[in-house]
Amino acid sequence: MNIPNHPKPYAARPMRGNRPGLALFTLLLGLGFLGHTADEPAKDKVPKLIAPAVSTGTGLLLEPALTLPEFTREKFEAAMASVGSEKIHKPWTNAVVPLPPHPRAEVKGLTQDEAKAYMMEAKRRFTAGEAVPLSDVGLISTQEDVIRKPMLNHIAAFSNEVARVYLLVQKTYSDNGWSYFSIVQDLTVSPPIDYFAEIRKTGPHFEATSCYKCHASGPLAIHPAREDLVLDAPLAAAIGQFIADQPRSVLFVPEDSPKPPTGEPLTLKFCARCHAEDGDRDRLFQVQSHPIRVLVDFGYMPPNRRLKPEEIAQLKAWLEKKP
Ligand code: HEC
Ligand code: HEC
Predict the structure, then answer these.
(1) Is there an atom of ligand 2 within 6 Å of 280 CB?
(2) pLDDT mean across residues, the chain
(3) In whole angstroms, what is the distance from residue 185 CA to residue 35 CA?
(4) What confidence category does residue 16 fall into, taking pLDDT thresholds of 50, 70 and 90?
(5) 295 inside domain
(6) What's the pLDDT tens digit per position in 139-167?
(7) Residue to substitute in 185, 194, 215 for testing ligand 1 pocket (most ligand atoms within 8 angstroms of CB)
(8) Alpha helix (H) residue ranges in the chain
(9) Does the C-beta of 183 come closer than 6 Å to ligand 1?
(10) Is residue 21 one of the residues assigned to a domain?
(11) pLDDT at position 238 over 70
(12) What residue numbers bound the domain in which 61 lies?
């Protein structure tokens, strides 16, 4: 199919009833009928479902594992739908919504304004019901010692040749309003650059300080806090796989939001064989101790085996070192 190259296809722009051509085009894009590329997970190729989160009792967690017995599936569904039920739990064929081609030919390095425009476009599509978000209670943020209540996430992924764009619409169970966060991965440079931002009323505001402690290696694979706290498990698996397969990237650090002090790198080889300067994932540092404690205790890291007791003891000793 021949896709017309709209002059500024990604700029935030409300859909108008009197422009049926554009409306139909945008609708088709939203439904994912156009522009599939090979690395986008399609529904007929859904990967293995994400293993349910169960604490393995390593003693690495700072607080007892939360199982949230009072947070029933009904409460979960109602809380998730409070964002607008027409925006979520969409039928889908492609978990990653294709975006039109980038308007600037042969781009080498997105400008900051272009990164922000992708973020706004992701938010616009979500608001218009043109995204395919997965809805879950996220394990890592829910278990966090300062939160300790359900953290509700709607996560949508978009892509074209030059960028991977993620939107996170988030609140805790007891908050009223939803907050918007986005990551834009610029694929036109090597290594790719990840722009992180909170999307405020005034527009996207780039951040590194508050994101780095969990997102040191870029977007994070999906981990629902409980098997029944996810609305579309195959979609979560497909988006999780897309994120896990991402290229190694570096974080864009804006002047007003520096990287926090990292502390010492984790060099234990049962982690550092993958988390290393030249590994699959970036090095891990003391500042990432929270996601490290959670992902290891819940048996997600290392990916293919459980740590032996003496390895857990080594990791615990490293985590307890003063930075
Ligand atoms: C306490 C840890 C933590 C911090 C701090 C954090 N995030 Fe996340 N973020 C997560 C987790 C965990 C997920 C995956 C959630 C899930 O499984 O549902 C996530 C997911 C996301 C996603 C969806 C794509 C992806 O990576 O899965 C975006 C976008 C995002 N975060 C943006 C941000 C931005 C921007 C900041 C800083 C302003 C930030 N996050 C800070 C833990 C964190
Ligand atoms: C065989 C390779 C491998 C080993 C060994 C491994 N990891 Fe990972 N790790 C990954 C991959 C791939 C990801 C990203 C995909 C995912 O999260 O499933 C990841 C993600 C993570 C993350 C989330 C931040 C990020 O980089 O995305 C943390 C934290 C983490 N691992 C901690 C550990 C710790 C601690 C160990 C050692 C106990 C460990 N890993 C061992 C491959 C590995």
Answers:
(1) yes
(2) 88
(3) 19
(4) very low
(5) no
(6) 999 998 889 999 999 999 999 999 999 99
(7) 215
(8) 20-31, 73-81, 112-127, 139-142, 212-215, 233-244, 269-272, 289-297, 309-320
(9) yes
(10) no
(11) yes
(12) 38-260
Between CA 4 and CA 124 the distance in angstroms is: 21
Report the atom number in ligand 2 closest to the C-alpha of 219.
Answer: 27
pLDDT confidence band for 323 (50 / 70 / 90): confident
Lowest mean pLDDT among 30-44, 95-109, 235-249: 30-44
| Ligand that lies nearest to the alpha carbon of residue 216, given by its number in the listed order | 2
- Does residue 130 fall inside a structural domain? yes
Return the amino acid letter for 285. Answer: F
Global pTM? 0.89
Q: Is residue 192 part of a domain?
A: yes
Band (pLDDT 50/70/90 cuts) for residue 23 is very low
Using most ligand atoms within 8 A of CB, pick from 61, 241, 275 the residue to mutate for ligand 2. 275
What would the two tokens of residue 230 be?
């996810």
Q: Is 58 left (phi over 0), alpha (psi -120 to 50) or beta?
A: alpha
- Kindly state if the Cβ of 179 falls inside 6 Å of ligand 1: no
Q: Ligand 2, atom 7: nearest CA belongs to which residue?
A: 302
Taking the centre of ligand 1 as the mean of its atom positions, its distance from the CA of residue 281, in whole angstroms, is 16
- What average pLDDT does range 44-70 have in this prediction? 92
Number of domains into which the chain is organized:
1
CB 240 within 8 A of CB 260: no
Ligand 2 site, residue 270, Cβ cutoff 6 A: yes
Would the pLDDT of 99 be above 90? Answer: yes
